[in-house]
Structures are given as structure tokens and as C-alpha cells.
Amino acid sequence: MGMRANWRIPCLAALAAALAAGTAGAQSHEPMKGGSKASAAGTGKGNGKIAAKKIEKLACALGTQDSHARIAVELVNGKVNRFAYYSIWKPRTCSMEVERGDVYSRWEDTGSVTVVTLSEDTGAFLIGHEAGKRFHFIFRDIDRVRYCGMEGKVSGSLTIARGEPRCVLDGVMEKGE
Asked: What pLDDT is stored for residue 149 in this prediction?
């Protein structure tokens, strides 16, 4: 439960920032301002340049004020690099943030599918992508106690599409899981 408290504030801040600006970036198909395209200084080897990174942020939400789910996704060169999921069933909330290279997850890419395994056997995500247009997140037995403070598992799917402000949910918000 301590992990949840540590993740909650940065996750909510990242989600709020992405939701505030992500929809505009998603609809224009252009990187967002504020360092969205970055190039690193050379290493002194070869031509001294490292290819520029294209960073995009997508966001979507679905539901009412008292019962909704949201996700913000950061893409680096078209691949999911980080995501923050948040849901609320008044009065309870659930939030999680996962980033490549963090100590809480292991990422494995195979073709158009990325498997994200959470530490301490707290679940996994399968992320499928259709030529960078849609990103389909499958929640596989995510531990609700760890991330949401309530018993059970989060399973189901959430799909976010470029330029779409609404997510597509299947099972993620079901209370009987």
C-alpha cells in the first residue's frame, strides 16, 4: 500500500498534464511543444550525431464524473514508453504509472506487441499497436490492493486511438472482477 501512495501524486500529476495537453497533440498528430523533439549531443564518435527522438502524448477518458477511466500514453518514436492509468468509482480511485526502465516493471517487445510484467507478480499488460494508430492495453490480473487499495484483480482491455478523446473499455471497470 505504501507503493500506491508513492505513485499516486506523480501519476496524477503526469496524467493531468497529459490530459490537459495530450488531446491537442493527439489530434494534430504533431509532437507537443516543450521539448517534444529532442536530439542529443554527439559522443565524438562517427559523425557525432544521435538521431532525434519523436515524442508524442496521447490521452483519452470514458465515463462520468463519479465513474470513469483515463489513460495518458507517451510514445517515443512510435513505441509506448510510459503510461499512466487512473480510474474512479466514487469514493474509490485507482492509479498506476509504468515507464520503460523503471524498477517496477520489465518490458519486452515482440513485433507489434509489448509485454509489460509488473514486479512482485502484481500483474501484466499486453500492449498491441496497429501501425501507430491504436494502442490496445490488455490488463492481466493487475493487483487491485497494490494499485487501487481494494481487493481483487483488474482485468480487461482499454484501447486508445490517435485523435479520439474517448477510450474504448472492456471489463476494466467491472466491479465483480
From this structure: 83
> 135 burial class (0-12, 13-18, 19+ CB within 10 angstroms)?
buried
CB atoms within 10 A of CB 71: 27
Residue ranges of the chain with per-residue pLDDT less than 50: 1-44, 176-177
- On whether the CB atoms of residues 42 and 49 are closer than 8 A, the answer is yes
Query: What is each CA distance from 105 to 118, 122, 123, in whole angstroms?
Result: 4, 10, 10
- In this structure, what are the phi and psi dihedrals at residue 93, rounded to the nearest 5 degrees? -130, 160
pLDDT at residue 137 in the model: 97
Please give the grid coordinates belonging to residue 64.
462520468
Pairing state between β 92-99 and 53-63: unpaired
**Residue for cell digits 474509490?**
92
**Per-residue pLDDT at 47:** 66
